[in-house]
Amino acid sequence: MTTYFVTRHPGAVEWARESGIAVDRQLAHMDIAEVKAGDCVIGTLPVHLAAEVCALGARYFHLALEIPPEWRGRELSAEDLRRFGARIVEYRVVEAGGETP
Q1: Which NCBIfam families does the UniProt entry name for this protein (predicted)?
Q2: Label partner for 87 (CA 20 to 30 A): which of 4, 22, 31, 76?
């Protein structure tokens, strides 16, 4: 089993390290072909990629935080992430396959 942390943000990498989150591989971009059943993927993936991760039998953990509008688009430090309530939340994402509205 491999734990991937998908982020291109140094503050997120530092936050994860300081939070004691065990990561085997930190990647700026996810190559879905690397993911195997039983792996864990942490990040803020687009929903279709999170669904692919789950369809492969891996687990998806979202880096969730509440960023005020005036802070969006800025590079955040580990301290900023803590201030905005950063946490890891597991989601099981499944494509619904419904008709387009």
Answers
A1: cas_VVA1548
A2: 31
Domain residues of the chain, as ranges? Answer: 3-91
Count Cα atoms within 13 angstroms, Cβ side, for 64: 8
Listing DSSP states for 25-41 in one string gives EEESS--GGG--TT-EE
Instruction: Specify the 3-state DSSP secondary structure of 62.
Output: strand
Residue-wise pLDDT for 60-90, tens only, equals: 999 999 999 999 999 999 999 999 999 999 9
Half-sphere CA count of 47, side-chain side, radius 13 A: 4
- Cα 47 off chain centre by: 11
